[in-house]
Each structure stands twice: as C-alpha cells, then as structure tokens.
Design brief:
alpha/beta; 5-stranded parallel beta sheet; single chain; globular
Length: about 240
C-alpha cells in the first residue's frame, strides 16, 4: 500500500471546490531540442508528437474527448506537446516571464518544467539539452513572479537506481516547486531510446520495481506538495515497453 500523498484531484477540490478536467491542447509549438537551437533530434524518449500524443489543436474537440468523463463547464487548458513557452520570444526569457506574470494576475497559471533527473550523465544521455543550473535559474525566476512550478521526473531511465530517484525527488522539493509529476519511462517505437532498448542496452522496469520506486519517493516529499501524476500512459499503437 502506498503512503498518503496530496493528489492533484484533492488539491483542485480544496482550491476550487470541485473536480476539474484538463483539456490536452497543442499550441502548435516546437522545441529548442528539435528546431536546431540546441539539437534537431529531440529528447531520446520523445515521440514525433513531442510527448503530446493525446493533444489536439481545437478546444471544442478536446472537450468532446473528455465528455464521457466530465459534464462540467470549467476546464484547465493544458498545453501538452513540445515546449509551450517556445514561441518567437524564447522559452523563459524576461519577455515570457513578464507575460506569465500578467496572465497569472488574470487566472491561475501553472508552468511545468521537464527536469527528469539531476544525474548529469543521464541528462546528457537523454539529450535534455541544459545543465542543472538552468533549471535552478528557471525556478528562481518563476518564484519571483509568484509561480511555483510543477516539475517532471522520470522513473526507469537507463541505469538509474532508487537512490537516483530519491535524490531527484528531494532536489525538486527543496527547489521550491509546488508540485511534481512522476512518470514511468515509456519506450516508444521510432525513438532513439527504442533503438537502445532493442540492442539490449537497458531493461524496462517491472510493475513491482516501479511500485517500489514510487513507495520510496513519496515519503521524502513534503506533505503539502501536490502530486500531479504517479504514472502515465503511452499511446498503445507505438508503446513497445513496459506493457
């Protein structure tokens, strides 16, 4: 049995008095890891949809897609694919921060940061594209405008251990993040990660191994930290492992 954690559903009910559903949207952006600014290949695990395989461009279509689960009239607009602060102005430069500050005074704004790991060798392997100091600066800048970010970490990255997962989780909680998204490493076909998997360079986690990692991470997080995700689903048509 997993220890208690503060789920995003509980947080939304506490904050807004009701359950809200996200609309998974595409802002038609790209990513500095794909457009040549940092790289052209993307992160090693990322699909051709920029991890937005369930995102759509039309908000009415997004509402229809969740209509069997939600009949309310209030939603969270969740821009999921690629890097959704990456328009002409950049990722998190002064102009973007100024815009986010302005928007945050109109309605609540969440910014999610893809840290994934604090292990430098793993970060290089997955082509994250930036050193840990860039994450630190991004969090500091967001906190300065009153936005405490939600930070992503991945369990199951090749050759990482439970000690690595705990270290990353502690770093995220100590950095000032308000929430965390814990994801299982999905090995998707037609990615460089899939090629390494087929070569036998690493193994996918078993269900028991994943649950053990989750059980080790949750106790080191503050009780007030919102857990936005404990796992996720890869598109079944391109998911190679774990099944």
């Amino acid at each position: 049995m997993l220890p208690y954690y503060y789920s995003v559903s509980e947080y939304l009910k506490d904050t807004y008095g009701k359950k809200l559903y996200k609309l998974s949207l595409s802002g038609n952006m790209t990513c500095p890891n794909r457009d040549g600014f940092l790289d052209t290949r993307g992160c090693i695990f990322c699909s051709g949809h920029g991890s937005g395989d369930f995102a759509v461009k039309d908000i009415d279509k997004a509402k229809t897609l969740i209509s069997n689960k939600y009949s309310g009239s209030e939603y969270i607009a969740y821009f999921q694919s690629f890097t959704n602060t990456y328009a002409d102005a950049g990722c998190l430069g002064d102009d973007i921060l100024e815009l986010l500050d302005e928007l945050n005074h109109i309605k609540p704004v969440w910014i999610e940061l893809g840290l994934q790991t604090i292990n430098n060798s793993t970060a290089d392997y997955i082509r994250r594209g930036y050193p840990l100091s860039v994450y630190d600066e991004a969090v500091s800048n967001l906190l300065s405008i009153g936005i405490a970010p939600v930070v992503h970490m991945i369990i199951g990255l090749p050759h990482e251990t439970i000690s690595d997962y705990i270290a990353t989780a502690r770093y995220i909680s100590d950095s000032g993040a308000s929430g965390i998204k814990i994801s299982l490493l999905h090995i998707l076909k037609d990615t460089d990660l899939y090629d390494d998997y087929c070569k036998g360079l690493f193994k996918a986690l078993t269900m028991d191994e994943y649950l053990a990692a989750i059980g080790a991470i949750l106790p080191v997080l503050p009780k007030s930290m919102v857990i936005h995700r404990l796992t996720g689903d890869g598109p079944k048509n391109i998911l190679a492992a774990p099944l």
